[in-house]
Structures are given as structure tokens and as C-alpha cells.
């Protein structure tokens, strides 16, 4: 296993909390991370029917097997187990005893919040960022190859064809996870919904239009979108609001966390297809937004990421709000950046400067770092070198 960027945050949480919960999508590397860093700790995977039955039918007996704690994988399969874990933790709050992982964030986090409030450190492991992918002996070199491959570890660990692996991933996700959390009679309708969401990545999200195109009701579209968010397939990037009097949009943007998955759902089966694809710019925007999201998740940050757009369509693709300072990021898929493309970024910086210091960054699809007097233009492959601004 390559070193994951979340490792220092994970080890710090283990030294501070009796319970550490780690959520994230399937195959993001949660089990591998836990078992690598805690090789001597008992491991239980509740995907196995017999272990799940034991945990559900006799939770006290199940937990009593592990006086020193354990790693419990896919704990959302036995959500009531956490209620029985609470008194055990209260009796012995030694840090790092229990590690809980889950791929369905809403079911797991609801129980963690209810039963283990104040007792659990909460982290999220997403597919790999560029800074992690380059640690493999072989990794995508070009931007199109990187967009197409995405960031799921197994693709790089076993040098697999992304399209083939992601086809199996989607089938498993839809058939197993979606069935487990939603009463969907026709899974093909949900798959169609998933594909239509991929067609909207990097764009403002209209639930009304999405529901109409999918042939489902708006409440159903909202519920299904929540499923995609809870299983870390997509995230909604909210618009930034302050006490500024200027009218700002209230519509969120939709982003796929993994662009390889988005490409597969869009019918893209090779990186060459991205060269002239009409959604390449939107996919690239989701790629950069995902990189920033991953960096913040690896640092234990769960908030503070927005975009800016006002009623005159003045926009910054990303806005990172740290409370006392902000970073705005413009994202351009092209290999050349000129001053005209950056003018909106300077206007946004001027608009929001009254709320505190603002730094500006432009990320583009080229290869050269371009330090300028008023901002830095960063190539897509070197964004992780500017973590201070993220």
C-alpha cells in the first residue's frame, strides 16, 4: 500500500479518541489503511453474513470478544452495535481501542452522533488524490489519462483498465449498496439517474430539471441525490454567502468526487475520447474541486469549501473559507492562460476583500508553473504543492 495523505490525521485521532470512525466510498482504501497501520488489532468485516448475524443477534457477546478493541469494517450493517459500544467506551476510554469503518455515511454517522458523541473522532477517506497516485511505480502522466483513470486505489495497485474495473464497481454499488438503503423497484431507473448526474458534473444543479429528465418526482430525485452524497459518489458545492448586500446565487454545483467514475457513466471508454469531449472542461473542474475536497478531508476538515457566483454571473470556481482568510480558485482546462481569462478572478477578489484577506490561485490544464505579481498560475499536476492555500 502506498502512504495515504490521511495517515497523520488518522494516527492523531487514534491517540486522542477511544473510537475513530472512518467513512468513504467502497474501495477507497479504508480497510487497507486500518489493517496496515494497526496490524495487531483484531479485524471483523460485517459484510460477512455470519459475522453480521452475530453482531446483530448478540451485540454484547460480539463486542466481548475484543477486550482490547477491534477494527469493525462496514459497521453500518449492524447499526445498533454502536449503542452497546457506548458503555464499553465509557468504562474504558483508552484512546485508539476501536476503529469503525463504513461506506454508507448517513447510516453510520447518524448512529455515531447519537451513541458516541464526544467519544469518536470522525474522518473521511476518499479516492486518492494526485499526490497519492504519483507514489505508485506506474501512474497516469497526462491530464486526460488522469481524468479518465480517477483515483480508486485498486486500479493503480493492480494496473487495471479503469473502464473495466469501474463497470464492475458501478454494478456492485447499484446492486448492493443502493438496494440496502433505498426501496427502488427498478434499478435501471436509478442507473439512468446516475448517468444524468454525471452529465451535470461541474455545473449548477437544478433538481427540477434532473427529475424531469430522469422521469421521477422531485422528492425522489432529492432522496436519490442524498444517497449518492452519503456514499461519497458526488458532493454538492454550496455557493458562498456573507452579509454582503450583493445578490448571490443560491443554487449549488454538482461535482463527482471521482472523475474516472463520471467518465465511465458518460460512456467514455478511453482517455483519447476526452480530447474533444464537450464536457471535458466540466470534468476538469470536478477533478480540481475533488482534489481540494480530498486534501481537506485528509486534514480532517469537513467544511469551508464553496464557489462564488453573483446575479451578474461573476464567478470563482472554488472559494475556500478559513474564517479569517480566503482563497479563491479559477479553474481552466486549457493549456494556455491569459490575462483576459483571469479578469473575473480579480473582480471576485475585489468584491469579497471586505470580508478579510483573499489570496487568488488559477489552476489550468498546462504544465508550467507561472508565478505572477498578483497571483500564481498552477498546472493541474502540481496543485498539491500549494497546500498552504487549500
Brief write-up:
42% of the residues lie in helices and 17% in strands. The chain is an alpha/beta fold and 390 residues long.
Secondary structure blueprint with pairings:
Elements (H helix, E strand, L loop, with lengths): L6 H8 L4 E5 L6 H8 L5 E3 L3 H9 L1 H6 L6 E3 L7 H11 L6 E5 L2 H11 L4 E5 L5 H4 L9 H7 L3 H5 L4 H20 L5 H12 L4 E2 L2 H8 L3 H13 L3 E6 L13 E4 L2 H7 L14 H19 L6 E5 L5 E7 L4 E7 L6 H14 L5 E7 L5 E2 L4 E4 L11
Parallel strand pairs: 1-4, 1-5, 2-3, 3-4, 7-9, 11-12, 12-14
Antiparallel strand pairs: 6-8, 7-8, 9-10, 10-11, 13-14
Helix pairs in contact: 5-6, 8-14, 11-12, 12-13
Description:
By secondary structure, the chain is of the alpha/beta class. Helices cover 42% and strands 17% of the residues. The strands form two sheets. A nine-stranded mixed sheet has the order 6-8-7-9-10-11-12-14-13, with helices on both faces. The protein has helices spanning 7-14, 30-37, 49-57, 59-64, 81-91, 105-115, 130-133, 143-149, 153-157, 162-181, 187-198, 207-214, 218-230, 259-265, 280-298, 339-352, and strands spanning 19-23, 43-45, 71-73, 98-102, 120-124, 203-204, 234-239, 253-256, 305-309, 315-321, 326-332, 358-364, 370-371, 376-379. Strand 10 (315-321) and strand 11 form a beta hairpin. The radius of gyration is 22 Å and the shape is globular. The protein folds into two domains: 7-124, Rossmann fold; 130-389, no CATH class. The model has no long low-confidence stretch (mean pLDDT 91). The protein is built from 16 helices and 14 strands.
Amino acid at each position: 500500500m502506498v502512504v495515504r495523505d490521511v495517515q497523520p490525521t488518522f494516527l492523531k485521532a487514534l491517540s486522542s479518541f477511544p473510537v475513530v470512525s472512518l467513512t468513504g466510498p467502497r474501495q477507497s482504501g479504508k480497510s487497507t489503511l486500518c489493517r496496515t497501520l494497526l496490524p495487531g488489532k483484531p479485524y471483523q468485516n460485517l459484510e460477512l453474513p455470519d459475522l453480521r448475524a452475530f453482531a446483530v443477534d448478540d451485540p454484547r457477546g460480539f463486542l466481548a470478544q475484543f477486550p482490547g478493541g477491534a477494527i469493525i469494517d462496514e459497521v453500518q450493517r449492524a447499526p445498533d452495535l454502536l449503542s452497546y459500544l457506548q458503555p464499553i467506551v465509557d468504562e474504558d476510554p483508552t484512546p485508539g481501542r476501536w476503529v469503525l469503518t463504513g461506506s454508507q455515511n448517513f447510516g453510520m454517522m447518524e448512529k455515531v452522533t447519537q451513541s458516541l458523541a464526544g467519544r469518536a473522532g470522525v474522518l473521511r477517506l476518499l479516492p486518492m488524490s494526485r499526490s497519492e497516485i504519483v507514489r505508485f511505480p506506474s501512474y497516469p502522466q497526462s491530464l486526460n489519462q488522469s481524468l479518465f483513470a480517477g483515483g480508486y486505489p485498486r486500479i493503480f495497485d493492480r494496473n487495471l483498465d479503469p473502464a473495466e474495473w469501474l463497470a464492475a464497481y458501478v454494478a456492485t454499488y447499484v446492486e448492493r449498496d443502493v438496494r440496502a438503503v433505498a426501496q427502488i423497484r427498478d434499478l435501471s431507473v436509478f442507473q439512468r439517474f446516475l448517468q444524468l448526474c454525471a452529465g451535470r458534473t461541474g455545473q449548477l444543479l437544478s433538481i427540477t430539471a434532473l427529475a424531469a429528465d430522469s422521469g421521477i418526482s422531485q422528492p425522489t430525485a432529492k432522496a436519490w441525490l442524498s444517497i449518492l452524497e452519503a456514499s461519497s459518489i458526488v458532493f454538492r458545492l454550496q455557493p458562498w454567502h456573507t452579509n454582503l448586500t450583493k445578490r448571490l446565487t443560491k443554487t449549488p454545483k454538482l461535482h463527482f468526487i471521482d472523475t474516472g467514475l463520471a467518465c465511465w457513466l458518460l460512456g467514455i471508454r478511453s482517455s483519447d475520447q476526452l480530447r474533444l469531449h464537450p464536457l471535458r472542461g466540466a470534468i476538469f473542474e470536478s477533478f480540481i474541486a475533488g482534489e481540494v475536497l480530498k486534501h481537506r478531508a485528509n486534514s480532517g476538515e469537513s467544511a469551508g469549501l464553496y464557489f462564488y457566483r453573483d446575479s451578474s454571473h461573476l464567478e470563482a470556481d472554488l472559494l475556500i473559507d478559513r474564517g479569517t482568510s480566503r482563497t479563491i480558485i479559477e479553474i481552466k482546462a486549457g493549456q494556455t492562460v491569459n490575462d483576459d481569462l483571469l479578469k473575473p478572478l480579480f473582480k471576485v477578489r475585489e468584491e469579497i476583500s471586505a470580508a478579510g484577506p483573499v489570496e487568488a490561485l488559477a489552476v489550468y490544464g498546462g504544465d508550467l508553473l507561472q508565478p505572477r505579481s498578483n497571483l500564481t498560475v498552477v498546472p493541474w499536476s502540481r496543485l498539491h504543492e500549494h497546500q498552504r492555500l487549500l
